[in-house]
Amino acid sequence: MNQWGLTCSRCSARLPFRYQNMKCDCGGTLLVDYDLELVAKTLTKASLHERYPSMWRYQELLPVHDPANIISLGEGWTPLLRMPKWESKLSLRRLWVKREEQNPTGSFKSRGFSVAVSLLREAGATKAAVPSNGNAAGALAAYAGRAGIEAFVFIPMDCPSLIVDECPLYGAKTILVDGFIHDAAAIIESGRGEQGWVNVGTLKEPGRVEGKKTMGFELAEQLGWTFPDVIIYPTGGGSGIIGMWKAYLELKELGLIDCEMPKFVCVQEEGCQPIVDGVHQSSQPTRAGEDDSLLLAASSTIPNPTGMRVPNPPDLPLLLAIVEQSGGTALAVSKVQIAEAMRCLGTEGISSSPEGAATWAAMLQLCTDGWLKPSDSVVLFNTSHAMKYAKLGTSAAIPIIRTYDDFVMYRSL
Amino acid sequence: MNQWGLTCSRCSARLPFRYQNMKCDCGGTLLVDYDLELVAKTLTKASLHERYPSMWRYQELLPVHDPANIISLGEGWTPLLRMPKWESKLSLRRLWVKREEQNPTGSFKSRGFSVAVSLLREAGATKAAVPSNGNAAGALAAYAGRAGIEAFVFIPMDCPSLIVDECPLYGAKTILVDGFIHDAAAIIESGRGEQGWVNVGTLKEPGRVEGKKTMGFELAEQLGWTFPDVIIYPTGGGSGIIGMWKAYLELKELGLIDCEMPKFVCVQEEGCQPIVDGVHQSSQPTRAGEDDSLLLAASSTIPNPTGMRVPNPPDLPLLLAIVEQSGGTALAVSKVQIAEAMRCLGTEGISSSPEGAATWAAMLQLCTDGWLKPSDSVVLFNTSHAMKYAKLGTSAAIPIIRTYDDFVMYRSL
Predict the structure, then answer these.
(1) Separation of alpha carbons B40 and B250, rounded Å
(2) What is the per-residue pLDDT across A110-145, written as a single tens digit (0 to 9) for each?
(3) Is B146 close to A349, i.e. CB distance below 8 A?
(4) Interface contact B178-A401, CB threshold 8 A
(5) At the top level of CATH, which class does the domain A80-104+209-389 belong to?
(6) Complex-level ipTM
C-alpha cells in the first residue's frame, strides 16, 4: 500500500496525513505528498497503457487507501479537442479545448469531489457541507448521494437557478445565501461543530486539489507525455491551478516527463479579480488579508455569479507564486468578451460555460497583445455546459410555424 | 480502403452505397453493409486495445472514406456505471447505467450526428435539416457548426426551451413547429428541393444508425466482449435499437463475440406508444400506415415532449422484428413513474433525462412483473441530462438565509 503525508507549500513543514484542516501553522496550505519511489514501481507509461480511461487510472497518486471507498460516477478522461481552423486564423502552433463539461455532473468539479467524497467515506464522515457558486455544490450533492453521505450546500442567491435546482435533485439539503461565497463559507464555519459537517470548501480538505490534479496528468498523457506551452484556466479559488502545478511537479519527479513547465494563465471576470490584481501589483502587499467586501466594492462592475467570482481565494500567495514561477500571467475579461466567446465556441460546436468562454476571450486578448507567440501550443479549459447558466425565455424570439409556406413567408420577411 | 454498400433489412436486396434515400422499393430500410472479411483484418481485439477511447475507434465499421472528413467533438466511450446497491435490492445479477449524457452535446444524439455530418461533408452538402424533439436538433446544430454546414432545425413548440435555446447557440437556424415531430418532418420534405436541405431525419440517411451502433460496440467491449442479458432503451424513432442490433450482428460475424444476443426492451411513455402497442398486438396489422394524429388522439394522456414521443416511427416493422427476435419486450411507463425514477437516479448521483429515467422505471416494473430474473445482467441507457428538461422557478421553494442563526431557525421550523 502506498504511503502519503502532507507538506506545507509555503514553509515545507512535513506532517502526517489528515482529512481536515489543511492550514499549516505558518499560514501556508498543506498538500498531499507521496512516496514517489514507491509510486514509480507501479505507475509507469506501460502500466497506464493497460488501464481504463478514467481519472482513477492515476490511483497511486490519489490518497485513498481502500479501493472499495472510491466513489466514482464516471469522471475524468475528458476529450481534448483540437481547433485547427483557429490555429491558422490566430497563428498559433496548436490550440486545444479540454472539454471538462463532459464530466458526470456536467462540470470539472466532478473530479475534486470524486476524491473528496471518497476520503469522507474513508474517514467515516456522514455529513458534509460546501460553499459554492454552483458547480461544486452540484458535484458534492451527486457524489455524496452516491456515497450515502448527507450533503448541505450553501449557494449565493444570485447563482443560476438551474445549477441550484440540480442540488435537491441529487438529494442535497440546499440553502441559498444572501451574500457572496465567503458569506456562505462563514455560515458553514459557524455551524460546523454543532451540525457535525465536514467542510469540503476549497483547500479545506485534501481531496479536491488531488482530484483536480488529474486534469494535469490527463493533459500530459493525452499530449503524448509532453506539456503544452500555455494553460489558460478560469480561476476562482484556484484549486485547479494548484492541482495541475502539483501534477506536473509529480510527473517530473517520477521521470514520466522531461520538459519545461507550462505557463499558467489565470482568467477572471472584471470586477472580481484578486489574482489579476495580485499578479500585476506584485510589489504591493497581496490582498489576502483585506476585508472581503472591499475587494468587490472597489470595482464599478458587478461580476456575474460564476465560479470565477471568489473575492478572497483561500491561498492567494500560492496562486501568485505558481503564475510567476511558471512565467504565466493573469487577466480579467469583460462580460461582453465572455458573451462573444460563448457565441464563437457555440458555432464551433462547443457548449461553453461563462468560465470556459472566459478562457477563449483571454486567449484572443493574449494573441492581440502579442503575449501568445506563433510557436505556442495552448490549452483552454471549458469547465461546464452553457445550458447550466441559461436564462429561460430567450427562445421567445424563435419563429413558430405550421407549414412550409409559413417558413417561406418568414424567411422572406 | 474499406468498401461498403446497402442491404435492405426487409427484402435483403443489395444496392450501392448512397448518402440519401434509405427506403428500399419494398418499403424496408436500407442499412450499410461492410466487407467484414476485409474489416476483420484490421479491427481486432488487439488493435482496439491500442486505440483511443472514442467511438471512432470502430472506424472500419463507420462509412466515412476519408478520415479528414470526420467531424468529431469528443463523442463516445461514455462511462458504464454499475449500481451495486440496487443489484442486491432488486436481486439482479448485474445492473449498469450507460451515461450517454456525457457526450459532447449532452445527449446520445452526438454519436449519430458525428457520423451523419461527416457523411454530409464527404458528400459535399452545404445545408441540412432535421425534425426533432430537441436533442437531435442540438446535435445537428453542434456538428454542422463545427463542419461549417448550415443547419435548419424544426422542433415542436412544446419542447423544453433549454434544448431549443441550444440550437441558435450552435449557430443553427431554429424554427418551432405548431405540431408534432412528423409535422416538422413534413415541412422539411416540402421544402427540401427548393431549399437544398439534406434531410437528416431518422432513417433518412445512413449515418445516424451507424453512429448509434457504436453504443452496442462499446457496451460489448466495456463488458469484456460479452453481451448483457437485457438492454432497456427509451425508444422514439428507434435508430438506437436498430443500430445496436446491427452492431451485435456485425460483432458476431466478425467473430469478436460468441454469445446469445441481448434481449431488447423498448420503453415509451404512456399516450404515445406505437412500439408497445405493436409488440403486444402483433397479431393485428401494425399501425405504420395509419394516420399519425390518430395514434396520439387515441390516448387520454398527453405524453411529455421527449425523444420517446414519436407517433409514427419510420420503420415500425423492423423495430418489432428486432424486439421479437431478441426475446425482448416493450412497455409504456407513466409520467409519475418517470418523475419518481428521476428522483431515484438523482440520489444515486445521476442526472437523468425523462427518457433515461423511463428505463429505470421500466426496469423496476419488469422486476415487479417477474419478467427480469435474478440471473439477468441489465443495461439501462441514460440518454441525456436532467437539466435540459428543467423548468425554472422550482428553486423558489429553497430557503434564503444570511447567517448560521437563520439556518438554525429554518431547520427548527
Answers:
(1) 10
(2) 999 999 999 999 999 999 999 999 899 999 999 999
(3) yes
(4) yes
(5) alpha beta
(6) 0.93
